[in-house]
Structures are given as C-alpha cells and as structure tokens.
From TrEMBL, chain A:
GO annotation (BP), single: transmembrane transport
Every ABC transmembrane type-1 domain range: 94-299
UniProt xrefs under CDD domains: TM_PBP2 (cd06261)
TM spans (from-to): 7-26, 100-121, 133-156, 176-195, 236-256, 285-306
Chief location category: membrane
Alphabetized InterPro entries for the sequence: BPD_transp_1_N, MetI-like, MetI-like_sf
GO cellular component: plasma membrane
Subcellular location: Cell membrane
Keyword vocabulary terms for this entry: Cell membrane, Membrane, Transmembrane, Transmembrane helix, Transport
Record protein name field: Unannotated protein
TrEMBL record, chain B:
Protein's name according to its UniProt entry: Unannotated protein
Keywords: Cell membrane, Membrane, Transmembrane, Transmembrane helix, Transport
One GO BP annotation of this record: transmembrane transport
The keyword Transmembrane helix is assigned to this record: yes
Length: 314, 348
C-alpha cells in the first residue's frame, strides 16, 4: 500500500504539467472566444465587459491558479461558448467512451486469448502461421481504413447496421448495441491482432516449463492445460497492454467518433479547439489524463496481486 | 524433452525429403505464377471479385513456393516477407525522392476525358484517375513524399531526444530519473490526437508542425526503451572497468553506454515510423494534414470516401499503397528488433 501512496503522489506533478500545457496551448490558439459569443458586430465596450466577466484579461499565471483551485473543489467552470457546465458536458459524454473502451477490450480479449493460446500450442504449424500472417496484415490497417471497409460492407452492401448515429444505453440496449457494434469491431481488430501475438509469444515460453509437461502427463485436456495452467503465468504483458489500451481508448477514439458520428469526449474536446473554448478543453484533457493515469496505476498495482514474487520497489 | 529424443528422426526425414521439397517448391512457384497470370489476364468476361480471388490464390502459392526455394538455397532463416517488405520500402522511398523526374503527370493536372478511369494495366494510367481526373499514380507518389518525410523527421527527432532523455535518466538515476519519468508520464497522459489537433490549430499545417507533434508523441517510447537498455548496460563489466580507470561519468555515458544501448533502441524506429504514418494518415483523413493541393494518402482516402459506392478504387488505391507501406515498416521493424534483441521485450 505504501507503493500505491507513493505512485499516487507522483500523479500530482504529472497532472499539473498536463493541465499547464493545455493552458499554454490554448493561449496560443488563434481566434477569440468573445467574438464567438457576441458575434462579429459587437461593440468594443461589450467585448471589454464580457472579457472582464469571463476573467480573460487576467495574466496567465493567475488564471491558471484560479482554475486549479476551482478544479480542486470540483468546479470545472462553464463552457465559454454555450455557457453549459463543463462537468455536466463531460458526464454526458463519458458513458459513450467508457462503453466503447470496455466493450472493445472485452471483445479483443475474448477473441485474442483462444487465438493466442492455440497458436502457442501449435507454434510453427499452419494455424499459427496463418494467425501470425493475418495479424501482421491487420495491424497495418489504420482504424480509419478498417472503419471505411466495414462501413462499405456491413452498412452499405449488406445493410445490417447503421453507419452513423448513436442511441444511449438508457433508451434500449438493443438499439445501443446496433450503433456501437461497428465502432467496437473497428477498434477491436487491431487489438485482437496485437494481443494474440503477445499472448502467443509469452505462452510459447510458458509451455516449455516442466509443470506444463507434468500436467500433460497427468492426462489433462489441452483446453485445461492452456486455459487453467498456462494462461495466468503468461498473461502479464497482456494485462499491461490491455490496461494501457483501455486508458488510451477512453481518449483516443476521436477518429472513430468522427467517422461513426458518436457524441463522445474526443469530439467535444476537439470541437473546443477551434472555438478556443478553453474551459471545455481543460476539463476534458484533465478527465482523460486522470483516467489514463489511474488505470495505469491499477495495472501496476495488480502485478503484486497476480504474482507475489514481484518485489515492491518505490 | 520429447524433442531431444526425436531430433535424429527429424533430421533423417529432412534429408530423405530434401529432393521432394525442392520439387514441391518449384512446382508451387510455377503454378502460383500461372494462376496469377490467369487471374490478371486470362478470365476476360468474369467479375473483378472472381479475378482478384484467383489472383490472390496464385499469389499465396507463388509466395510459399519462393519462400521454400529461398529456405533450401539460402538457409532456414530466410524470410521472403522481409525481403519483399525491404524491396517495397526501397522502391517507395526512391520514387518519393525522385518524383519530379519520373514520367508521370503532375498531381494537379486533371483530365476531362477518361474521368474516374478505373485501374487497368494496359492503360496509360495503371492506377486509374480520381473524381477530378487526376492521376492516382502520381498523386499517390507525391503523397508518399509527405508521409515519408514526416515519418523520417519525426523518427529522427523522437529518437534523438527520446534516447538522450532515457540515457540521462537511466544512468544518473535518483531525481534526474524522477524528472524524466514525470515528463514521460505527462506526455503519455496527454491524449495524443488532441495534442496533435491543438498543435495543428496553433501552428500552420505543414510538414514541420506534423513532424514535431508526432515526435513529441513518440519520445516516451524511445525514452522507456533507452532507459531499460541503459540500466542493463550500466551493470556490465566494461563500464565498471572504465570507471575504475577513472573515466568521468559523462565519458562513460557517451563513449561506453550510448554506443551499446543505441542500436537496440534504434531498431524500434521502423515500428515507430509505421505508427507515425498511420497517425499522419488519420489526421489527413480528418482534413487536418498537409493542406491541399498537395496530396496525402489520408486525404486521398477521404476524397474517395464520397465515391465509395460507385468508384471504390479512388479510396482503395491510396489505401492499399498506405497499407503496404505500413505493413513493410512493421515487418522490417519486427525483423530488425528480433535480430538485435532476440525475443526479449524491452518496453517497461
């Protein structure tokens, strides 16, 4: 637990740097949110008034400090353009990304674990070679291309699923799954390829161990040996990567959101960039950074539970 | 254990089968080549899907035959895929560099005749034309220039800065390492695409902006690998010997550790280049890459997306070229990394 506390402490400077970088970056963005609020025909005194109300004229350090102190009290401010509370916007958008990220990881692991385990068992044989070759091919397809191909086949040709749009999970799981299926499959494709190769190489090493031979000698089935005996010790790299990817997917789906017209966080944040809506930008980046860092921390801590041999260094 | 017992038996079979292997390999190659030719030119009336399916079967047979031939002639570790990937990379790099000297149309030149011509080998535009009638071959080649330039610049920048940070952090340890770690974690925690979006909005949408942005995103990878390498090399005897002889810490770091740790780190560059090309393509696909009229694979695919139902080749020609390039970078990178590092994984 001491390790956990130390790692948690290290997050503070990281978060400060990330938010400060966002602040500086927004400072350099072209344009002025005041013009977006008042329109092109605003009089100078109106502009000055709004600037004062939004506290835009204060020097950067003092604005940063006041933003941080507000954020610490849970207040992320209001969007400069729409006036909506930033935390409400994020709360509304977050479920989309969480659902996509979690379903993608589940699908990827569900497919990749049997694939990887079986190719490790048949290392060098036809099945293994076919999986490896296919994985190489799949990894080389950028998500925007696989999205395009899937849309062309599933949505246009077969007319099975809608190509864009979104229904929240609250309005019916069936409808929700229809809209989320293509984005999740698109994202999962690459992950399946990467995970199955990772598990294959780790498991091929585990299968050389004597206890696996012993288990086989006892006449246990292939399935039992692979899934019950060999999987857990071979899954460390896999868990690390799945964790890192889960964190990354929460914020890294901008392209998929745009292609499939999903109302996610990435779209909200990227729309804030040209509008120079810095409160939304700040809040969004902060949320994504916290999610990413916490998931990584949990992955690191989970090692010590998975394998007691790992020493806890600070 | 069973393998040890069976090794002589295996050896016997290999020797006994040797002539048959050669014969099978030759048959497979010739058969594959014939099928490919039939698929490309033989079946005139049938649909494109059938022809490409036949050609694909031929390509697989040809590939396996040549792979087997190479294994027999050159050695068991011969990998045809790596050689093909290297060949593709060399060709695309040369073509991109000398694009101006090639006998191709300008990427701006549009034709009213033969609008949206489909790819056809006997035709003067082998890859067809896009919706404006511009040559897809020429546009793809000039797009390769942008992608490869961005990949080269950002990998060079990322490799230099990233490995210096990893070297310093790994060698000095303590607070220097903590600082480097905080920096790496901050970069990793910043959503990469949002960083790129913001950079593109702040600065102009040029090759340098994209390269610097993508370098920033790739620095942590190099830093982590370099740090792990430095920690490993630092414990070796020759480093101890150097410090016993009174070499300064900077000298040890630059003269002893850097040369030994650098090659493994640099071997990651091909894989980083592949991901840089994907990222650049994604930005261009969203309209945030190099501004028109300069073509980019991503923006070409985006142009073709609208015509996907009627003229799929407009999107798929650049898509396939991009795919082959990324695939080749990955394949060569995987090979390079395995040669340098064995099966070890150095991330972490």
């Amino acid at each position: 637990m001491r390790l956990f506390g130390l790692r948690l402490l290290q997050l503070i400077p990281v978060l400060l740097i990330v938010t400060l970088a966002t602040f500086l970056l927004t400072e350099f963005l072209p344009g002025d949110p005041v013009y977006d609020i008042l329109g092109p025909e605003a009089r100078p005194e109106q502009i000055a008034l709004v600037r004062q109300q939004l506290d835009l004229d204060a020097p950067l350090p003092s604005r940063y400090v006041s933003w941080v102190s507000d954020a610490l009290q849970g207040d992320l401010g209001k969007s400069l353009i729409t006036g909506r509370s930033v935390s409400a916007t994020l709360r509304q958008r977050m479920p989309v990304n969480l659902e996509i990220a979690v379903l993608t990881q589940l699908l990827a692991l569900l497919v990749a674990i049997p694939l990887g385990a079986w190719s490790a068992y048949r290392a060098g044989r036809r099945f293994d070679r076919a999986v490896t070759t296919t994985s190489f091919g799949v990894v080389a397809v950028p998500p925007f291309l696989s999205a395009l191909i899937l849309v062309a086949i599933v949505a246009y040709k077969l007319r099975l699923l809608p190509n864009t749009g979104w229904t929240p999970i609250g309005q019916g799981i069936g409808e929700n799954l229809r809209y989320i299926a293509l984005p999740v499959v698109t994202l999962a494709l690459t992950e399946i390829a990467v995970y199955s190769q990772l598990l294959r190489s780790d498991m091929a090493a585990t299968l050389q161990e004597d206890y696996v031979l012993a288990a086989r000698a006892r006449g246990l089935s292939n399935r039992h040996v692979l899934m019950r005996e060999a999987l857990r010790p071979s899954s460390f790299s896999l868990i690390t990567l799945a964790g890192v990817n889960l964190g990354r997917l929460i914020g890294g789906t901008v392209i998929i959101e745009r292609i499939f017209g999903l109302p996610g966080l990435g779209t909200a944040i990227t729309q804030a960039i040209p509008a120079k809506d810095y409160t939304v930008l700040q809040g969004g980046v902060l949320l994504l950074a916290v999610a990413y860092l916490l998931i990584n921390l949990l992955v690191d801590v989970s090692y010590t539970f998975l394998d007691p041999r790992i020493k806890r260094h600070g | 254990m069973a393998e040890a017992v069976l090794a002589p038996v295996d050896e016997f079979w290999k020797v006994a089968q040797a002539p048959r292997r050669l014969r099978n390999a030759v048959i497979s190659s010739v058969f594959g080549l014939v099928i490919v030719l039939i698929g490309m030119f033989g079946i005139r009336s049938s649909s494109a899907t059938l022809r490409s399916a036949v050609a694909a079967v031929g390509v697989v047979a040809l590939f396996r035959g040549l792979q087997e031939l190479g294994r027999i002639r050159i050695g068991p570790e011969f990998a045809l895929g790596v050689w093909l990937a290297l060949f593709w990379l060399v060709v695309i790099v040369l073509v991109a560099i000398f694009a101006d000297l090639l006998p191709i149309d300008s990427y701006r030149k549009t034709e009213l005749v033969s609008l949206r011509a489909r790819p056809r080998l006997s035709f003067d535009e082998p890859l067809g034309r896009d919706a404006n009638g511009a040559s897809l071959l020429s546009r793809s080649i000039f797009a390769a220039r942008v992608s490869l330039m961005v990949a080269f610049l950002s990998v060079s920048l990322g490799l230099t800065i990233g490995s210096l940070l990893g070297l310093v952090g790994g060698y000095f340890g303590k607070w220097v390492d903590v600082l480097v770690n905080v920096y790496t974690n901050s970069t990793l925690a910043f959503p990469p695409l949002i960083l790129l979006f913001a950079l593109v909005a702040v600065f102009s949408r040029g090759v340098w902006t994209l390269s610097i942005g993508l370098a920033v995103v790739s620095i942590p990878t190099y830093t982590r690998v370099m740090r792990a390498q430095t920690l490993a090399v630092r414990e070796r005897e020759f480093v101890l010997a150097a410090s016993a002889m009174g070499a300064s810490r900077w000298r040890i770091m630059i003269k002893d550790i850097l040369p030994n740790a650098f090659i493994p780190v640099a071997s990651y560059s091909f894989i980083v280049a592949a991901s840089v090309i994907v990222a650049e393509g994604s930005l261009a696909f969203l309209g945030l890459g190099i501004p028109p009229p300069r073509p980019s694979w991503g923006s070409m695919v985006a142009d073709g997306e609208i015509k996907l139902k009627t003229d799929p080749h407009i999107a798929f020609v650049p898509a396939i070229i991009m795919f082959l390039t990324v695939l080749s970078f990955n394949r060569v990178g995987d090979w390079a990394r395995k040669r340098v590092l064995g099966e070890r994984n150095l991330m972490g």
